[in-house]
């Protein structure tokens, strides 16, 4: 029924995470019915990003400039480095605006199952960044998964001879978490890492 | 954190139905990490649609040509006309491939509450299409809502003096519907419209 152009747009949209074929069709219809207010601005924004898109050679972030906006920001603390698995993690952490330093994206996590070895990640680049000096503290912000934690352990070992503080994100109850609904792993972590009430 | 271009793209995507700010950010990241396989094709598809986008002067469908692909299709039955409220309804019905005729999009439904009167819809155009002759049957495919049914009644009255068959979609149990979970309105309709078992 739909013209080939509309079909192509539906299919391209349906490949986005969070959109299936059905919602993609709804989105296409929405775009077509409101050409000036939705389709045109989206097209322009997408063109801008497509033209300027680059991966930061320093930290591995994807941005519209290289070095990325975080690496270029003079207000950032050069002494602190937060290591994350993926760009999505960097974005998520940075939205909290609580980490004042810079980032390093590994590009994944060590995984025996998926055959991801240290040389498949940007670990050598990380070591070079730290060897270059000026970094006091490294925060290992891996996911709280088996593979994330394996990666964090591996990194901690690789970095142990540098004169830097190495920390990792706390594990425990998430904000709003109810004991009754949390898994045993989280409860065990929260109990093990319990802190004195002051 | 994100550059203004990325922020703009996030916001434009977040205005699509089915995507919120969070899923829009995930979609942006997805597009940026896979530029060649996702961003570029989506951009091209969107450009095509944006350039060719038009509303069919005959039936009110949105398509990449005017007359739209349905109105141009020589295999369609000119004698049957299906009247729908919105373009989305046309697309939904046409996906079923069960209606062989052509369509007419009203552009909404009569609503005392929202102040939508007959002259706000394409009812005059519909009457002109039917007056022009050649149409045998009109299917009123309004939503099974109060306003949809009011609109169907109004149309049936407006069209009663034409030598045409006027029908409307059957109401009853949806396929897979379990009595226990259906509302009383649907059950009442299904009972009232019960048919002899042959």
Q: What class do helices, strands and sheet pairing of chain A give?
A: alpha/beta
Q: Give the total of domains of chain A.
A: 2
The global form of chain A is: globular
Largest interface: A-B, 53 and 52 residues
Profile the largest sheet of chain A. 4 strands, parallel
Question: How far apart, in Å, are the first and last alpha carbons of chain A?
Answer: 68 Å
Poorly predicted tracts of residues of chain A: none
List the helices and strands of chain A in order: HHHEEHEHEHEHEH
- Helicity of chain A, in percent? 40-55%
What is the highest CATH level, the class of the largest domain in chain A?
Answer: Alpha Beta
Could you give the count of β-strands of chain A? Answer: 6
- Please give the count of helices of chain A: 8
- Kindly report the CATH topology of the largest domain in chain A: Dna Topoisomerase Vi A Subunit, Chain: A, domain 2
Domain Toprim (chains A, B): 79-174
Pfam family, one (chains A, B): RecR_HhH
Protein name (chains A, B): Recombination protein RecR
Organism (chains A, B): Sphingomonas lutea
């Amino acid at each position: 029924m739909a013209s080939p152009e509309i079909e192509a747009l539906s299919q391209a949209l349906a490949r986005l995470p969070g959109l299936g074929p059905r919602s993609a069709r709804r989105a296409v219809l929405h775009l077509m019915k409101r050409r000036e207010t939705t389709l045109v601005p989206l097209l322009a924004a997408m063109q801008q990003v497509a033209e300027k898109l680059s991966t930061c050679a320093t930290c591995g972030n994807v941005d519209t400039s290289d070095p990325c906006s975080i690496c270029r920001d003079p207000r950032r603390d050069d002494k602190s480095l937060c290591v994350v698995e993926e760009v999505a993690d960097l974005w998520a952490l940075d939205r909290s605006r609580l980490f004042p330093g810079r980032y390093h994206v590994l590009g994944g996590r060590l995984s025996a199952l998926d055959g991801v070895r240290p040389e498949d990640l940007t670990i050598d680049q990380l070591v070079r960044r730290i060897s270059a000096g000026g970094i006091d503290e490294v925060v290992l912000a891996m996911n709280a998964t088996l593979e994330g934690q394996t990666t964090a352990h591996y990194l901690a070992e690789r970095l142990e001879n540098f004169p830097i503080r190495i920390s990792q994100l706390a594990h425990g109850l998430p904000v709003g978490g109810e004991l009754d609904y949390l898994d045993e792993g989280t409860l065990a972590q929260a109990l093990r890492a319990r802190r004195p009430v002051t």
